[in-house]
Amino acid sequence: MALKAITLNEIERIFTVTDALGISREALVIPLRPEAPGRLRLIKDGILEIVVDRDQDFEQWLTRLGPAIQALMDLPEPD
Hints:
By secondary structure, the chain is of the alpha+beta class. It has helices at residues 8-20, 58-73, and strands spanning 28-29, 39-43, 47-51. The chain contains two helices and three strands; from the N terminus they run αβββα.
């Protein structure tokens, strides 16, 4: 099912992933409008922008978020 907007529920689920990776919530930008395709990118001052993919199942997208962030930021595996 395609997402039309990112709600607090989805943001909290994303925070669960980023918290486990030790990324400060203040270092994140999560737009409230999903896009196709979604994207991850580092923007100014080391801020991580997380744009949810509108056309992918959110649960499946979420399972790939952690590894994608680790690859982008060259982070170690969480304990």
